[in-house]
Amino acid sequence: MQEHKMFKEQGIQTLEHTLLINKHDRRLFYLNPADTKGMSIDYGDYLEEK
Fold first, then answer.
1. Domain count of the chain?
2. What is the domain range of residue 37?
């Protein structure tokens, strides 16, 4: 995912072990709360444009 690189360039770690694909073909992963002032943030996109 290109987004991992984008977040890394901004100094935000992604929790790559949380990467999953849900039943709606959406990729999800979480950002490290240590880099987001304690907030739990998930990021998602679709495998293909719909």
1. 1
2. 2-46
